[in-house]
Amino acid sequence: MRTISKHIVKPAEPTWNGLLPLTELDHISVITHSYIVYFYDKPIEHDSFVTSTNKIVNTLKNSLSRVLVPYYPLAGRLSWIGGGRFKLECNALGAELIEVESTMKIADFGDFYSSSDKFYNLLPEIDYCGRPIQGLPLLSVQITRFACGGLSVGLAMSHIVADGASAFRFIKNWARLTRGEPLEVVPLLDRRILLAEDADESSVREEVDDGGSMKFFSQVGLGKVGNNVTPIFKLLTKEKIERLKQVANNSNNDNNGHPYSRFEAITAYCVCKARQLKGEDITTLTIAIDARRRMDPPLPSSYFGNAVIDINVSSTAGEIMSKPLSYACSKIREATTKVNNKLVLELIDFLKSQQSLINHQFFEERGKQYSPPSPSIDHGKVEVISWLNLGCSGVDFGWGFETYMGPPMVHGRDGTFMITPFKLDGSMVVGLFLRNKSNVQFCELL
């Protein structure tokens, strides 16, 4: 790998400067950068888009500068204020764009998903432990040129600033500008509806960084593997997914006329088969729910920020395993339907009352997941992270859709399942982070 150039890309026009309030939901779940890589075969030359490497880099740099005008928070910087909390200063310091040359070929990645640990070098390094957070760009992009003529676009985006739905809407809007098309929708940056009732930005705590953010991220174990496990991967074809849905929907009629979705069917199957637990053991499933449409009034899909909450579904292992797949599906649906405006606002107020949010936070570094040190491991816990409905695939910067899109998966928390679309054919990949023999046994069952 050889770095060709590095650029700081600032908004193409003057943007609003000042302190943009962060909500409590911005401070939970992953609070470092999140990562994604898009692979593209050698672009085909055509009249409307000159596809030499230099032209591609310059075009992406120019369109990034323009898309940062409506998405100006991504050109700002965070500051650490203690207790696992931050503030966002919109100051137009810019995003980072890196051009890298590799001797690898796209063919070297094989099926992509089983070699996602190789994605590590295709992504920008964000050094939380070596630099104060106010010196880190909130968006960093790495364009890697391969020996075969193909390329990858790897992105690192602060999860504090944007959740998955927001991030992928940004990426697609950036691609639209690159193709010479207008934004599909202007982002909504007003976060007041998700601020706690007593939130007052005029009384925000003074900045206390002075190296405090580096100490914080070092103390929580960022960069240390700890109890994390390496994944194995299972490809689910569209046909396999349809069979699981049929089993879930035909085994009982408890779906009240609304068939269980592919997400509900796959997640239920993961819960049923993931752990080799005794019948009386409690198993708990954690899933993330987008609260945008569950607010009153609903948040528009263009809301740019974090609007995701985690919910838990618990049952005994015996009950889950002895009953039809539809039972686990019904438990998942029952829990998700309870997410409403009242529940979200109560969670926000609860989080606001907490002196520290560290127990509600996770960390990631180019496919390596971390969580705060814990004295014990909950062997009954299963966490499902799904990218199925985020609109993450089908990104065309002007030279066609990606060959493959996916997150790096190097090691993660025991009990985590990562579900991502595979190409554009309706299939998907499940990354399994299960300790000991559970990984292999689960793959044989799936």
UniProtKB/TrEMBL annotation:
<comment type="similarity">
    <text>Belongs to the plant acyltransferase family.</text>
</comment>
<dbReference type="Pfam" id="PF02458">
    <property type="entry name" value="Transferase"/>
</dbReference>
<dbReference type="GO" id="GO:0016747">
    <property type="term" value="F:acyltransferase activity, transferring groups other than amino-acyl groups"/>
</dbReference>
<protein>
    <submittedName>
        <fullName>Uncharacterized protein</fullName>
    </submittedName>
</protein>
<dbReference type="InterPro" id="IPR050317">
    <property type="entry name" value="Plant_Fungal_Acyltransferase"/>
</dbReference>
<dbReference type="InterPro" id="IPR023213">
    <property type="entry name" value="CAT-like_dom_sf"/>
</dbReference>
